[in-house]
Amino acid sequence: GIIGINIRPAQTTLAFADLDARFLAQESFATTQDPKHFVVELIPRIQNLIRARPEITCEGIGVSLPGRVDLGTKRLVFAPNLGWSDVDLKTPIEKATGLPVELENAANSCALAEIWFGRHAEGVRNLLAVTVSEGIGCGLILNHQLLQGSTGMAGEFGHVALVENGLECRCGNRGCWEVYASNSAAARYYAESTSRPRKSRNGSGRAARNVQFEDLLSLSEQGDAKAREAVNRMAQQLGRGIALLITGLAPDVIVVIGEITRAWPRVGPIIAESVKRNSFTRAETRIVPSDPSSQPRLRGTIALVLQKHFGAPSVA
Amino acid sequence: GIIGINIRPAQTTLAFADLDARFLAQESFATTQDPKHFVVELIPRIQNLIRARPEITCEGIGVSLPGRVDLGTKRLVFAPNLGWSDVDLKTPIEKATGLPVELENAANSCALAEIWFGRHAEGVRNLLAVTVSEGIGCGLILNHQLLQGSTGMAGEFGHVALVENGLECRCGNRGCWEVYASNSAAARYYAESTSRPRKSRNGSGRAARNVQFEDLLSLSEQGDAKAREAVNRMAQQLGRGIALLITGLAPDVIVVIGEITRAWPRVGPIIAESVKRNSFTRAETRIVPSDPSSQPRLRGTIALVLQKHFGAPSVA
After folding, report:
1. Contact predicate A127/A296, CB 8 Å
2. Which positions in chain A touch B284 (Cβ < 8 Å)?
3. Under an 8 A CB cutoff, do A149 and B126 touch?
């Protein structure tokens, strides 16, 4: 079996999967702000998961993170949405469990999962995974290989400035794609449209600002005009960045991963229209949503261990 | 020997090189607007070059273009700065000469030339070539391989919209990087600053608009403040796009190719400063100018034939 750990800013999910990436058990807990406390909370949960299935040998642990892992040191070095920097998760987990730990950016592991488990045409050569959550990540499979880049930093298109002198991003830059097209962006659009200026000092705006993206999606599905408008704006901005990726990299397929895929019948056409308006290219790129029921982020953690220990099926 | 043909909007250069990519003969002529007339002019020039050196066997012809060549049909499909579309150059040249013709985007062939002939650290894995001329092209060597992408369209970062609702580009899009950072952009900046509004109707603005980029560089070197300011603005905008490339792809090295490299001692720091201001990444990317005396665009055409016929030295 394989232990997969998917760390997100609000919540961390652990799962125990068999080698076919079927989840045999899984649990979640609130991600602790302090990384040291987080590790202290995480380790006994891993140990319990392993102990609960004594008949299954555990091969390794895959961890996916909303950030970048230095190729050399294997430390988490860049994770603005998590608020962590320069954290070593690998050593303490390996010490406590005796198992090899593979750490990878969430978008990279999703891209690997798409190659391992995704239903794509045989031999798809260039595939980008775009994870849309609190931020935006990109995993780049180019010429059948994961692009890691200098010290492991490739794929940070979420932090490309799409708006000159735009809103400040948690990365320190301004106008980043993810500031306009992430789940957080949609929540902000909604808060802006629902907060009544006169009352904003006594906190009504603040309450709206804290709307969860999943609630926003539900409101939108129920026909709430302001929720719908917020999701539409997010989809348009998603299209702008996807246009950039298609213009520059001309992949065969872009897979979008995240809660937004639940609303695909409605947002898919908005994204497609925005891509068309914002790019002029002869590349023939398909834009497809991942299947949310397959838990792509969690499955990505399993792919990390599979590809390390068993070799990739089509990644050279 | 190898025949290399470097097509640019204003001028086409032909060269005869030995297998070490030393140029034995070379000549230039004005690029004919109509592609059919162009081919009619080009073919006898190729034949003369070959006939002049009867002692050298010609192995093939490399052609580099400011546009994209469809991987399947080998036709030129996207060349806004040339004004050509859907042109077959390969068949008529092969028919007339009996030699195999390799066609490739100029930036792609420059990237290959950098890998073949460039003075980079052994085994550089990720190298981007940014050609700055009438437009901007990007050749992407990622994981030691040239990225071609779906139907050969990868690398059109010059046509990524850096300015929302910006100036119209010859590609049909608005606000493209090359509209703000190419040689043509610098010429426009200069024209804008030198045209006197009162006299603009009788054409003084128009004269300034036609300044050649090489003249602009010379004026700038001679201390002309407006020329200097135009080149500075171009360098700042070059930095914005390079910041995007570093953020997204985190290459080991970016090689800048074009007339601008002549002014590198002055523009290099401006580009570096702009990259720093516009990106927040831990990637460690070196930004270096190609050596203009090595005629990188022309050498790129030789690399095209070498890599096809002799296999790449480090490109897998």
Report:
1. no
2. 150-151
3. yes
Residue B214: pLDDT band (50, 70, 90) is very high
Domain boundaries, chain A: 2-110+295-310, 123-289
Residue B283 and residue A150: Cβ atoms within 8 Å?
yes
ipTM computed for the complex: 0.91
Nearest chain B residue to A127, by CA:
B149
User: What residue has token string 């703000």?
Assistant: B180
Q: What homologous superfamily is domain A123-289 in, according to CATH?
A: ATPase, nucleotide binding domain (3.30.420.40)
Give the tens place of pLDDT for each residue, B218-234.
999 999 999 999 999 99
Q: How far is B65 from chain A (nearest CA, A)?
A: 16
The pLDDT score that the predictor gives to residue B311 is 65
Tell me the per-residue pLDDT of A75-92, one tens digit each, with 9 for 90 and over.
Answer: 999 898 899 989 999 999
Which of B126, B127, B138, B160 to mutate to test binding with chain A, by most A CBs within 10 Å of its CB? B160
Quick one: B121-289 is in which CATH superfamily? ATPase, nucleotide binding domain (3.30.420.40)
A230/A152 Cα distance (integer angstroms): 34
Long-range contacts of B266-269 (CB under 8 A, 24+ apart): B266/B220, B266/B231, B267/B231, B267/B232, B267/B234, B267/B235, B267/B238
